Amino acid sequence: MRGTTSQPSDAASRAAATLYGALPAPATRPSPIPRDPAAAAASSGASARTIATEPTTAGDQTGSIGPVSDLSQADRDYAESLGRQNERTGTVDGLRRIPSTGADTVPGFMLGTLTLRPTIGERVVHESVDYGSSKTSRVYSETTVSGTLQSDWSRHQLTVDGAASFQKNLSGTGTEEPRANIDARLDLDLVNDVTATLGAGYSYSEESRTDPNAIAGATAQSGIHEFRSSVGLRKDLGLLRGTTTFEVTRRLYGDATSASGAPISVDDRDTLGAELTARVGYALSPALIPFLEASVGREKYDQRIDNTGAERSSITYGVRAGAEFDMGEKLRGELAAGYVLRDIDDSSLEDLSGLTLDGSLAWSPRRGTDLSAGLTTRLESATAAGQSGSVVYGFNTTLTQQIHSSVVARLGATAGLRDYDQASGRADQKSYGVSTGLVWSINRYLDLEADASYTRTREPGVTDEKTARVALGLKLRR
């Protein structure tokens, strides 16, 4: 082996041994001055002859290794192999790379094995609303506090996401609309490739006056508190993927406010619901997993018979068929179609049923361009006498384009259809909206945002609503 034999006899061998770490680099020390003048003269002559016959080039010295010119070609090749092989590829035009300023580059705060990444945003919004013959306009500030808490564990994972928005009118008239939402998810890796998921969440919102259950003429609609909890199990059996989820939802409705300022109680709408969902998928490939899904749920009203004299508790059955697909960063998502039926306890009310369309899609045709789309279907209970409710379909899509390393443009669109039961005698309600925005990441901690949006809700025989907003704001994250 190199460097394990006796001391090398020549400079090349010593340089090679030094290269592989067997010998220390040769040190250059001044020769001791002999006391005998004759010996000094002889030593001086020998040194002169040595320097003349063995010249040393300063450029050949590399750290503590001997002269490179004395190494064999094999030693030089081995020395080069010790260096970095996967060098970063430079830009096409040779310009200096600009550091990324995305939200994923923010370090956050370390809380033991958890990382907290908080964000605070402040916007000034001008809003104009046309509701039938009345028109209102206001300027308000909107403060949004959000954050993500994520674990850094070797096995399990905890993720908590939350956001809350508060509005304050600066001028004009209009209803302030606070919102809040928080979701926690704990993924547990159990024995025999069994994965468990525990979830909990809370959300608050105010009912829109275009909602069919809104109180006509109220200056402030009811606030909706929703509490959620869930538990799920997943097991892979060869090519089969089995998932079971049980979710409990508690929904509470606050008082609305009449034009005279008096509270209007709507607590007869408070409900407790539970749903069990089972899914079986077959992995045709890692990129495509078709599946079948079935669900059954029970929704029970706190007040068995509501203020209209109807018993609105119900059992809901659903079945879906679809596929999950994951083709990397270019294309991934899930699409499914099915059928849902809600059997209402009161025999005088018509059961709700309809086709369901659900899914999500994320497509990136090229770097810097991202398109996302979503489909949702849900059942909505009614509160008016003789009405059962509706099947609500929603669609949304967002296109983002990175036009600069720190500037991203966004274009969005939404559409909705509320399909009422035939016994209600109401025409279907349609809504649509468009939005656009621009985000400039000044640095990885601060963003400047500008956006504009327009939405419209139409229903024959009911007052239409048109809303336009223009906003400018800052977002600070850590």
Automatic annotation (TrEMBL):
Which SUPFAM superfamilies has this protein been placed in? Porins
Low complexity: bias regions: 36-53
Pfam families named among the record's database cross-references: BBP2_2
Q: Where is the composition biased (Polar residues)?
A: 1-10, 54-64
Q: Where is this region: Disordered?
A: 1-71
Q: Do you know which InterPro entries this protein is assigned to? A: BBP2_2
Protein name from the UniProt record: Outer membrane protein beta-barrel domain-containing protein
Q: Which organism is it from?
A: Hoeflea olei
